[in-house]
């Protein structure tokens, strides 16, 4: 009986395969000479650029669409959030949202509230080096006082103060130091308009005036301490809102600007939208219950 043998067929070598049978890799060419991937990435970047375009006005909301609270109710709830916190470290802060343009003029000035807050702000003073003015400033509580020594600390990024005052005798030295690009963005650049360039440093430090400035369409200001009565907080809130409204009216020839929303918050608590009323909705809550250390 004949044996069946299966002979293994040899695979053809690449050199033996005709070129017409090898699949060719086609390359797509464009008239512009640019690949499709680059064109797609360029289209994507243009879309990102379109997304980055911001509206002309800051976003504003209708406060009546959200829960609103009377001042006493807001203080009552905020005090609940501050239970167990250090009393001296608790402040009431007012945030006033404005209907305004992004690139328009901003509201900025100083105000002396009916009931000043012991904020414990740290002051820096620019005055003649080693003068009697510098000695008086340091005695009044300034962290630094002088000219070139203060300028050098500012250039090195060492600014141990929240407010910077300048004496009139050092105004020219301040201009020659060219520190606007370092102090301006932080809101520390002294100016005559804000009263931070003065001839009476001690009086300015102890006057109790607070500086406010609009940032991203919102003005923020500390308006009370945990020991304040609701009436004291109400007086400060009314004075602050009146001040901002008057500043908005003064700018109406340049831009559209108006108060949109008033929110009261605390150091560790959330914000409560105020409806302009004072009394609590709970008749059992009295004003004296909402004052003093908890």
TrEMBL record:
Keywords: Ribonucleoprotein, Ribosomal protein. It comes from the Eukaryota. Residues 32-56, 274-294 are annotated as: Disordered. Residues 284-294 have a biased composition (Basic and acidic residues). One of its GO terms (cellular component) is mitochondrial large ribosomal subunit. One of its GO terms (molecular function) is structural constituent of ribosome. The keyword Ribonucleoprotein applies. Pfam families: Ribosomal_L1. SUPFAM superfamilies: Ribosomal protein L1. InterPro entries: Ribosomal_uL1-like (IPR023674), Ribosomal_uL1/biogenesis (IPR028364), Ribosomal_uL1_3-a/b-sand (IPR016095). This is 50s ribosomal protein l1. It comes from Pseudallescheria apiosperma. The lineage of its organism: Eukaryota, Fungi, Dikarya, Ascomycota, Pezizomycotina.
